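Feature request disguised as a bug: please show the residue count (307) next to Deoxyribonuclease TATDN1 in the output. Example input:
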Amino acid sequence: MAAPMKRCFRMIDIGANLTDPVFRGLYRGKQHHEDDFLDMLKRAKDVGVEKIMVTAGCLKDAKEACELVSKHEDIYTTIGCHPTRCSEFEKSGDPDGYMNQLLDIAAQNKQKIVAVGEFGLDYDRLQFCPKDTQLKYFEHQFEMVEQLQLPLFLHSRNAAEDFSAIIRRHRDKIKGGVVHSFTGTKEEAADILDQGLFIGINGCSLKTQDNIDAMCSIPTDRIMIETDAPWCDIRSTHASGKLVQTQFPSRKSDKWQKGCCVKSRNEPANIIQVLEVIAAARKEDITEMANTIFENTRKMFFPDSSH
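Example output, currently without the count:
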């Protein structure tokens, strides 16, 4: 397998679930290999990843994410409640208190929290949280948006109509945002863009030719890129697989060797593959495109950063 090429692209991974125990070598509670978290970060840096945004999807995640990002200069986090976790508001016995705890965490970690989220709607996984509960607490979290005055990190899966209606209803509160892990149609992309939002592209956004065609309909100055690690990797069976240029040596988790990635465990370094696929599919200059996407992201989530 070819070693990764040295690249000069500047990239920001807007979505990585770095609190997942697989990045510590733990899979379903079993230690398969040594903690390779720092190796994983170095691989990302080596391909040009300058910042990573950890996605927090509930109160517990937010606490863990803030503890993690406090130890790393170029890693940041979001704060909010994922649609599939919104039942936690009610299970806590005090929905307002649950949100106040999120707000307290935000107040204590102002320099490291860059977005409200991950929040939104997910009708593909109603077994985890009923539709009515998702709708109620998607709306409820706009109180947090209003207080924190941060951009949004949004999730929409098979819920475009309701998602759009809620965004439009709260548009005056929104200081920009991105709908991450986009897998919708060209029409859904156009609706998101019409609301002033950006669109996040990862491996799941590029599985089929229809996915790729929808991605190609989005202007470059409205795209951000992500891995959603450890999920959403680009695979050889995907329509995008043939467009990948950079490969990393990998081993199965139980046969892992130091210096290798873990097979099927996505990680931030693989964002280079997302960039390669987007550039090839759109027939755009990859360096110019990377610079535009980097600036899209920097201006939204890191406005005080000059580079």
